[in-house]
Amino acid sequence: MAVLAFVGLGVMGFPMAGHLARAGHDVRVFNRDAAKALRWGGAYAGRVAASAGEAAHGAKAVFLCLGNDESVRSVVLGEGGVLAAMSPGSVLVDHTTASAELARELAAACKERGVGWLDAPVSGGQAGAENGKLTIMCGGEADDFAAVEPFLASYARCARRLGPAGAGQLAKMVNQICIAGVVQGLAEGLHFARAAGLDAHAVIDVIRQGAAQSWQMENRHASMLEGRYDFGFAVDWMRKDLGIVQDEARRNGSSLPLVERVDQFYAEVQAMGGGRWDTSSLLARLERNGSPGKHDA
To answer: Distance of CA 147 to CAs 29, 117, 150, 183, 256, Å?
Structure first.
């Protein structure tokens, strides 16, 4: 059993911290919305802290799952933040999808205090977090990864160190680039199938057996055809991630025309009132002149 801290109990962090508690660790949690923290305390064996710093005090590892660069920087370096409360030899693990630039900045700040650092964004969505089957992309020192790998295993089916600080965030950017293209392709395929008069469900049942198969096809085609988008990874979050991707692309000189185009499509979905819809709502954009809720019999 280890003393661990978890800060950020949203749809991902809540179950992730729960897996650590179920694994037998002494988990202290903090969330800015105290009601969420109290709900977590009622669901799992652990302690609800009054501040992020209090949660981090004496912890072997501190895990963050927050919203963006600004919130991470504030929780780590701000007044009452976790870094000032952490002991030398402990490790700070950031599961937030944020910039590689921030990861390098905080890695340097941690090093000054003798604290380890891992940027460790995740993929797998809410279902992956709840089922303990996330994929975690890590950047940082090998010794720090080895120190926390057993903890990550409580909610990950795959956790891998991919390089120094920032590498985890860069790998997550690759993940989001690939997802953007796959979802747009699936949306266009379903839209085309309907326009051609095909039974889209039957078409998917066939092509999912071949080279077109993907996670998005397996897990999203049915809800897309039904026009259901009030769940999953929100368009607002995806646009935040694609903004990070494009900022990094400008720094490293890579050309990402597909990402730029799909980001524009998501902006159109937001304008339709779909900012909190699942990213698969790209089909609703294509069918906005018809009825996105109309589905195949």
So the answer is: 20, 11, 7, 36, 36
Pairing of strands 91-94, 61-64: parallel
Closest CA to 99 of 252, 234, 232: 252
Contact 95, 76 (CB under 8 A): no
Sign of CA dihedral 130, 90, 66, 123: negative
Separation of alpha carbons 259 and 243, rounded Å: 9
User: Which tokens is 43 given?
Assistant: 């669901």
Record the pTM. Answer: 0.94
What span, in angstroms and rounded, lies between the C-alpha atoms of 153 and 132? 8
Catalytic residue among 36, 60, 172, 294: 172
Q: Which CATH class is domain 170-286?
A: mainly alpha
C-beta separation of 64 from 96 below 8 A: yes
**Domain 3-164, second-level architecture:** 3-Layer(aba) Sandwich (3.40)
Question: Is position 172 annotated as part of the catalytic site?
Answer: yes
Report which residue type is found at 3. V
Tens-place pLDDT, residues 62-86: 999 999 999 999 999 999 999 999 9
Domain boundaries, given as residue ranges, for the chain: 3-164, 170-286
